[in-house]
Amino acid sequence: xxxxxxxxxxxxxxxxxxxxxxxxxxxxxxxxxxxxxxxxxxxxxxxxxxxxxxxxxxxxxxxxxxxxxxxxxxxxxxxxxxxxxxxxxxxxxxxxxxxxxxxxxxxxxxxxxxxxxxxxxxxxxxxxxxxxxxxxxxxxxxxxxxxxx
Length: 149
Prior knowledge:
CATH class: Mainly Beta
Mean pLDDT: 83
Distance between the termini: 20 Å
Largest sheet: 5 strands, mixed
Low-confidence stretches: none
CATH architecture: Clam
Number of domains: 1
Strand order of the largest sheet: 1-2-3-4-10
Structural class: mainly beta
CATH topology: outer membrane lipoprotein receptor (LolB), chain A
Shape: globular
């Protein structure tokens, strides 16, 4: 998996399935951790990739009739993610008519809101393995352990 953030500040999160890296260009440190320690990430990835039944991942999964979809024809589901108590209060999933997740909104216990939009998603496209490898820039210190903060 490779996520490149552009706003409000450039950041890179990348994993090859064994090691996960987080780096913000210009920082003097890059953080790494074994991918298996990313429990909070594995659950959302499972439903994003279609490998998990939503009813198993969320408590109280219902239509969010009070939340408008950002794209006409889509609908919005809401639920509380199991196993993330203390972190997230609710997750909204905007679903396309063909069942693809177009948007995820994660509402945190601390009133934070993180939104992911998948505007041009493609499935089963060949991508070079090198895109999922991270080599810290010269002079950047590697900190191994947690991805917290």
